Amino acid sequence: MNTAPRPTRKTRLVIIDDHMIVVEGIRSALASLPDFEVVGFALDGVEGIKKVKTLKPDLVILDISMVNQDGFQTTYEIRKWNDNTRIIIFTMYSDKEHVVSLFRQGISAYVLKDEPVSDLLFALEAVREGGTYFSGPVKEVIRGHLEQLESAAGGKEDDLHGSLTRLSQREKEVFPLLANGKSVREIAEVLCISPKTAETHKYNIMEKLNAKSVVDLTKLALKRKLIEL
Q: What whole-number distance in Å separates Cα of residue 147 and Cα of residue 125?
């Protein structure tokens, strides 16, 4: 009897960066990760959007500062076109304006170019598994931003936190998985339930917590220390 494992589908990547040396550097680094495949690249945001729509990658590695169209608009258009395509920001910028704006848009990772290339590889592995990854300085910016939001919200924030007690036991199991970026299908596999049931739990959770998006759930889970960045 043949018991050889079935081959795992490679995770398909598109790189969008206006420096060819960066594109080639990422390609070279990915040689150590055989489960990933670079299916295309672009040197600006406009061309990048075309490549993403044509090639339909699982992940996009995206710079912020580019000619023709920056990373903010490119992120917005990718998320609008298909919010299942996960985005890894790879940039030199770690200031609050850049970090918070992109975090709000629902990116899966934010890696700084002056960090070791291993950080980018860790990010790719984490996002492939449905998680998130943020470089050290980026984590601090996000934590500071969330603390400011919590302080400004006052009693309203307490009400939101209190509403966690309204979740059923199963919803409490689904919530951190959802907040950590896992898809409905992945949650279904982890909890041994049907995707339809997982989807129902997702919308019940969002309604009970008055969340408009999964990003809202991520913020709440981070504040309650239910997940780690």
A: 28
